[in-house]
Amino acid sequence: MLSTAHAMADEMSSGSRTAVALTKSIINKSYEMSESQVFAEGSKAQGICYTSEEHRASVQAFLDRMKEAQQ
């Protein structure tokens, strides 16, 4: 079970710092919020992530890999 937690932590830490920070913030506040409030916060966080430089760079890297694969 601990190895599973380590694997999950490794996977999460390799992702977007913005996404991880927003997720941690929502989780920390979730005990004081209703389910609908948690979902609303998640929606806001998603909007922030989609407009971040990290997201743009990830999309560009994906498109570059797809272009290379087609050649």
Automatic annotation (TrEMBL):
SUPFAM superfamilies: ClpP/crotonase. InterPro entries: ClpP/crotonase-like_dom_sf. This is Uncharacterized protein. It comes from Vreelandella olivaria. The lineage of its organism: Bacteria, Pseudomonadati, Pseudomonadota, Gammaproteobacteria, Oceanospirillales.
